[in-house]
């Protein structure tokens, strides 16, 4: 697509004061690592494509549904790599999944490599988001999980489309501004009660990822 065609396609975003041509260019130049499954993954892919993210790499994991690669938005430039391969260079990662095993694997990978990431998962009647650039390893997702296990209780599949869209919105803000007001925080929103709160995540010696790094035996 030509530059003029790109500008025309995203003209409604470009005129927004918080985006502008410079912000749209940041999205166009960004490389996003995308992981997850189900409707949440589809919604995130659609939102990335609609916003003008030009390059997305999809992680293939144990429970990944390959039909996603066929049904992915036409404008989404998608590569796919297995989870165990060397991670490509990217601007930020987006993980939208109710699968705690996948989130844990990726949390440890991003933590080890100090890579910027946004996690999102269904929680109770709503959803939760966690954002970190893992600058010092901890705080990480497992620092929060080990002290707040109820925040990882099974959520409702009905929120997955909203989950994908909200997580993408957080990722786009990170790329646009370089920072986020909810970095190193878990943002929990209950759709049933309407309650929303941001829980600051602090490093803890109980973090399983940190304990493994230090050579301790930890139950998977």
Question: Can you offer a commentary on this structure?
Answer:
The protein is of the alpha/beta class and 220 residues long. It is built from nine helices and eight strands. It has one domain (15-213): Rossmann fold. Strands 3-2-1-4-5-6-7-8 form an eight-stranded mixed β-sheet, with helices on both faces. The chain is globular. The mean pLDDT is 84.
Task: Describe the structure in brief.
The protein is of the alpha/beta class. 39% of the residues lie in helices and 21% in strands. Strands 3-2-1-4-5-6-7-8 form an eight-stranded mixed beta sheet, with helices on both faces.
Characteristic key phrases:
single chain; 220 residues; alpha/beta; Rossmann fold; eight-stranded mixed sheet; 9 helices; 21% strand; globular
Tell me the name of the CATH homologous superfamily: NAD(P)-binding Rossmann-like Domain
Number of helices: 9
Question: Which percent range fits the helix content?
Answer: 25-40%
Q: Which architecture per CATH?
A: 3-Layer(aba) Sandwich
In CATH, the topology is named Rossmann fold
- Cα Rg: 17 Å
Question: What is the fold's blueprint, element by element?
Answer:
Blueprint: H1 3-9, H2 11-14, H3 20-29, E1 31-36, H4 38-51, E2 55-60, H5 67-71, E3 78-82, E4 92-96, H6 100-113, E5 117-123, E6 126-132, H7 141-147, H8 160-177, E7 185-189, E8 196-200, H9 208-213
Parallel strand pairs: 1-2, 1-4, 2-3, 4-5
Antiparallel strand pairs: 5-6, 6-7, 7-8
Helix pairs in contact: 3-8, 4-8
